[in-house]
Design a protein that fits this description.
Number of helices of chain A: 5
CATH class of chain A: Mainly Alpha
Number of helices of chain B: 15
Protein name (chain A): Iron-sulfur cluster repair protein YtfE (RIC family)
Number of domains of chain A: 1
Helix content of chain B: over 70%
Keywords (chain B): Membrane, Transmembrane, Transmembrane helix
Strand content of chain B: under 5%
Largest sheet of chain A: none
Radius of gyration of chain B: 22 Å
Strand content of chain A: under 5%
Helix content of chain A: over 70%
Shape of chain A: elongated
Oligomer: heterodimer
Structural class of chain A: mainly alpha
Largest sheet of chain B: none
Order of helices and strands of chain A: HHHHH
Number of strands of chain B: 0
Pfam family, one (chain A): Hemerythrin
CATH superfamily of chain A: nmb1532 protein domain like
Distance between the termini of chain B: 47 Å
Shape of chain B: globular
Number of strands of chain A: 0
Structural class of chain B: mainly alpha
Organism (chain A): Rhodocyclus tenuis (Rhodospirillum tenue)
Chain lengths: ~150, ~450
């Protein structure tokens, strides 16, 4: 059976790929570089927002109900989601303003925030979820997958 | 691997920054020494100039950056809260900086009192830091590879210090010490038991994080640091007991382990998802390439020297063409070359690259925490632009290449390498000062905005 940790971690890698794709467009695209980068960035922003939303509306509440921890790790993760949303907005603004260099500067910060957040979730929170949510894990993963693909459509 | 990165727990910026800003000053001092005494320095690793330069790099440059980074990493990566981090950082920094200068002066002048004074200052600084760090780490779980390796590296640092103080006692004439033998043990603990183990522990986190690579193999993360420390202990004991052949075997395994670390890191870096090699990534690749070259060179030459008269003919003919053949026969010449590759090529370069992520990120983090809504924090490229970092990194690569050639016995290249290293270190200092200046201006602007 697919664990919560495996499923959510592979979505992190998916978001990493989309993040890297923006840099690849900026580095390699010959013509229409900025519109292409903006489109790639929009895909990334949609995917990561879907990930945050699925966590905040499905995974975290389920964990909080099962563990009784409402102000523990999930509260820290929600805060960090807000920080990253702010940073995603700044990076998007830089691309919209046509500045690849400012994008690179904001994206660099975003990458560090994202990666340290992922390390925490994959190393601590998801394993806790797998332990707490043994019974309904399969159904929950199905709901999360549905939520993410719904947001992406 | 469970790592808790808590940015809210970051210590005041001034705690790590003072170490980072001091390191390039020592880098410039090394370069100046290479310019002034290049010929003496590259004649043998045991000359006063070579010993002074080595310690300006290891204690002056490397130790400053490693300790400065740990002031930042212990709370943020390991969740270990240090008591009064800023006050501790001030004292440790002053002791280590003064100790490094005095140690270099002691080697150059060969004065017993200077050795004793340098040993006392460095011993005090290192022990104060290790005690504070271990106290902060107490009670933290051993399930994180980084926390475990930081503890093991601190053990390596303490052993390095112990052998170093023994050497200081010998050099000051207090007691008899088999200097070359203990020096080799001291340097292997410093470079591998402290430097290598800490670098590996940090690499597990930062290489996948900054470069979007796969994680290090689980077996490597689990076993590397312990294996290296066990081999080092075996080597030291066997060597001191006079079993030199067995000791050499364990020494080779340690070199092999260093080579494997470099090879795995390089292989992971080829799988990076990022489109562009930025200055940090270029520094890491250059550093790991140098470390791998040093490990291969060490293992090959070690085997050839051991082989004695039964060396292959090509090796003997190669020796006849070398400007200083005797040194390459008795082994000291290639040890010097390995030293340049490991110290300047690998450690200095990797740390240089790390500073280019750590410092701009810390400026952003502290600026964001200090500023209100009205003054947005400068992004990492506004703190320090990529062209400035690349220009400095490339100058450093050039310096490394020239110094490697100088170690082959081309004296005038020592001068050119020294000049290039001086320029590279001055540019590093200028870049770090520029980043610190952006932070200062941001603080002033947000205070003015708050007052208005």
């Amino acid at each position: 059976m697919l664990s919560i940790r495996d499923f959510m971690s592979s979505d992190h890698r998916h978001c990493d790929d989309l993040f890297a794709a923006v840099e690849a467009v900026l580095e390699h695209a010959q013509a229409e570089r900025l519109p292409a980068a903006q489109a790639a960035f929009a895909s990334f922003a949609t995917a990561i927002e879907a990930h945050f939303t699925a966590e905040e509306t499905l995974l975290f509440p389920a964990f909080e109900d099962a563990s009784g921890m409402r102000f523990g790790p999930t509260a820290v993760m929600r805060d960090e989601h807000e920080q990253m949303r702010e940073q995603i907005r700044l990076a998007g603004d830089a691309l919209a303003a046509g500045s690849a260099d400012d994008y690179a500067g904001e994206a660099e910060t975003l990458l560090i925030l994202m990666q340290q957040h992922n390390v925490k979730e994959e190393g601590i929170l998801y394993p806790m979820c797998d332990r707490q949510l043994v019974a309904g894990a399969e159904r929950l993963v199905g709901q999360i997958a549905g939520c993410m693909s719904g947001a992406g459509a | 691997m469970a790592v808790i990165l808590s940015l809210e727990q970051a210590p005041p910026f001034a705690a790590p920054l003072r170490f980072f800003l001091t390191a390039p000053l020592f880098g410039m001092a090394v370069a100046a020494l290479v310019v002034v005494s290049g010929e003496e320095l590259f004649a043998s690793r045991w000359t006063p100039a070579a010993l002074a330069a080595t310690h300006l790099i290891t204690v002056g440059f490397m130790l400053q950056i490693m300790i400065g980074a740990l002031f930042q990493l212990l709370p943020v990566v390991a969740g270990a809260q240090m008591r009064r981090p800023l006050a501790t950082a001030r004292v440790v920094h002053a002791l280590l900086a003064a100790g490094a200068l005095l140690l270099a002066a002691a080697f150059l002048t060969q004065q017993a009192q200077l050795f004793v004074l340098a040993g006392a200052l460095l011993g005090g600084g290192v022990l104060l830091f290790v005690t504070t760090a271990l106290f902060a780490l107490r009670g933290l779980g051993a399930d994180s590879a980084s926390v475990r390796d930081i503890r093991r590296a601190l053990f390596g640092l303490t052993v390095t210090l112990a052998f170093g103080l023994m050497l200081v006692g010998g050099l000051a004439g207090a007691f008899a010490v088999p200097l070359p033998q203990v020096a080799d043990i001291h340097l292997s603990w410093g470079l591998v038991g402290w430097g290598g183990v800490l670098l590996a522990g940090v690499a597990y986190v930062v290489v996948p994080m900054f470069q979007l690579t796969p994680s290090f193999p689980g077996w490597f993360e689990r076993h590397f640091s312990l294996a290296v420390l066990v081999f080092l202990i075996a080597w030291s004991v066997l060597d001191l007991a006079g079993w030199s052949l067995a000791a050499r075997l364990f020494a080779s395994v340690v070199a092999l382990a260093g080579g494997v670390l470099a090879a795995i890191t390089l292989r992971l870096q080829t799988q990076s998802k990022r489109a562009k090699l930025d200055s940090t990534q270029q520094c890491w690749r250059f550093a790991m390439g140098s470390a791998l070259a040093a490990a291969i060179l060490w293992l090959t030459m070690s085997a050839l020297v051991l082989a004695g008269d039964s060396r292959p003919a090509w090796f003997s003919s190669l020796l006849e063409e070398t400007p200083a053949p005797t040194q390459f026969v008795d082994g000291s010449g290639w040890v010097l070359l390995c030293g340049v590759l490991v110290l300047v090529g690998a450690f200095m370069t990797a740390m240089n690259g790390m500073l280019y992520k750590i410092v701009p990120f810390l400026v952003w983090l502290h600026a964001r925490n200090a500023g209100g809504r009205g003054t947005p924090a400068p992004n990492m490229r506004q703190v320090l632009g990529e062209p400035l970092m690349l220009r400095q990194a490339r100058t450093h690569f050039l310096a490394c290449a020239l110094l490697v050639l100088a170690a082959f016995g081309v004296p005038f290249l020592a001068l050119a390498g020294g000049v290039a290293l001086f320029v590279a270190q001055a540019l590093l200092l200028a870049n770090l000062l520029k980043a610190a200046g952006v932070y200062r201006r941001h603080l002033r602007a947000s205070m003015a905005a708050a007052a208005a």
